[in-house]
Write a structure and sequence with these properties.
The protein has about 400 residues and is of the alpha+beta class. The chain folds into two domains: about 160 residues, GAF domain (Beta-Lactamase, 2-Layer Sandwich), CATH 3.30.450; about 160 residues, Histidine kinase-like ATPase, C-terminal domain (Heat Shock Protein 90, 2-Layer Sandwich), CATH 3.30.565. Helices cover about 50% and strands about 20% of the residues. It has ten helices and 13 strands. Strands 7, 8, 9, 10, 11, 12 and 13 form a seven-stranded mixed sheet that branches. A six-stranded antiparallel sheet has the order 3-2-1-6-5-4. Helix 5 packs antiparallel against helix 6. It is elongated, with a radius of gyration of 32 Å.
């Protein structure tokens, strides 16, 4: 019988099921075939310093789901790092009243095994019985082996999860490096070409303006107007390219997170009204977090995002700007109800000169990405569940509210 239980436990812990399902299967197996009335597995949270119930089987209706640091028998197992067993009659009379309700209520006996692998503590296998069972040396040894098998399985899952996280971080780092190389290449190109193009372009613009005055209402004036418009467009493209290449020092000051989008929203207020777009703001933290930012640069970043959102809603819609705190980051999300971005193109939207617009330069989001990353922040984009796109910007928050600069 003992070999069959051990074989089943090995089969469960080596399966491809999620860890919680594997641990649940082990608890059920132990409770069904061993002389215990309740089988529980508690996992240790190294960061929070707490035990959390991960799997259980048995008759207990008052099972404790959480142990804080230093609380209960699991804490004693972690401290001693060895198997312990307790009978309710063995407990200190000064402590028994507290333990009766939390741990040994309706039970006479408890046996706990530490889940340790390679000297790393992962949790506790907690077994309870109404009557103290007689465990043969063979069964004692089998339970020790089962605890080791559980420990190895949990360690493998922990390592696998860590490797997946490291792989994701590595891929994100690789993507950032590739993007940085593209920006560097663009910077080198623009530094050479933009200044060479700008001078003759300014001359053309000046001569076009003089020619327009000379022609007056001449029939050729419409062509001169078109020339002037196209020169202005080219000058804007040159300015955008120089903005990407610009590496001037940021003028960082403390600003309220919500104030960063207040002016861009006001600037585009008339444009939203003319496009039948309603604007909704959601401040999810009070007071709003403070961030260190170059306000002029950050406004350019949000101008670009909001302008893109408005252009995507040519038939009207809703623009939503929300702010919140996520750990050490203050986060702003700008969502539109437009047509969204084709999934196959989502990975290219921050690349230089990539655009889906007929007259776009493909530099607006590139400039935005650079501004945000120069601030030590991050920016992501994703299609909404229903319609439209959400751009999310994270900037490191600060706690000194007295440092705010208006």
């Amino acid at each position: 019988m003992g070999y069959n239980i051990l074989s089943k436990v090995i089969e469960l812990t080596d399966s491809n099921e999620k860890l919680a399902e594997r641990l649940k299967g082990v608890a059920l197996e132990l409770n069904a075939h061993l002389p215990f009335d309740d089988s529980s597995i508690y996992l240790w949270n190294h960061k929070e310093k707490t035990f959390t119930l991960s799997a259980a089987a048995g008759s207990s209706t008052e099972r404790k789901h959480f142990y804080s640091k230093g609380e209960g028998l699991p804490a004693e197992v972690r401290k001693k790092r060895r198997t312990i067993d307790r009978e309710s009659t063995d407990l200190d009379p000064m402590k028994i009243s507290a333990l009766e309700k939390t741990e040994l209520d309706n039970f006479r006996y408890a046996k706990l095994y530490p889940l340790i692998s390679n000297d790393l503590f992962y949790g506790v296998l907690y077994l309870k019985a109404i009557k103290k069972p007689r465990l043969s040396p063979r069964r004692e040894e089998m339970l020790t082996v089962i605890a080791k098998q559980l420990s190895a399985s949990i360690q493998c899952e922990t390592n696998y999860t860590r490797l997946k996280r490291m792989h994701r971080e590595r891929e994100k780092l690789r993507e950032r490096l590739v993007h940085a190389e593209k920006i560097m290449a663009l910077g080198e190109l623009s530094a050479t070409l933009a200044h060479e193009i700008r001078t003759p372009l300014v001359n053309i613009g000046g001569f076009t303006a003089r020619l327009k005055k000379e022609l007056g209402e001449n029939t050729c004036a419409k062509y001169v107007d078109r020339m002037s418009t196209e020169v202005t467009r080219l000058e804007n493209i040159i300015n955008n390219i120089l903005s990407v290449a610009d590496e001037h020092k940021l003028d960082l000051k403390a600003h309220s997170l919500d104030s960063l989008t207040a002016e861009p929203i006001e600037i585009f207020k008339d444009s939203c009204a003319s496009h039948n777009i309603t604007v909704r703001t959601e401040q999810l933290t009070d007071p709003a977090p403070l961030v260190m930012a170059d306000i002029d640069q950050i406004k350019i970043a949000f101008d670009n995002i909001i302008a893109n959102a408005i252009q995507s809603m040519d038939k009207g819609g809703q623009l939503t700007v929300s702010s919140q705190r996520e750990g050490e980051f203050a986060v702003i999300t700008i969502s539109d109800s437009g047509g969204g971005i084709p999934p196959e193109l989502m990975g290219d939207i921050f690349n230089p000169f990539f655009t889906t617009k007929e007259r776009g330069t493909g530099l607006g989001l590139t400039i935005t990405h650079k501004i945000i990353t120069r601030h030590g922040g991050w920016i992501t984009a994703k299609n909404n569940d229903t319609c439209g796109v959400s751009f999310t910007v994270g900037l490191r928050s600060i706690n000194n509210h007295s440092a705010i600069t208006k």
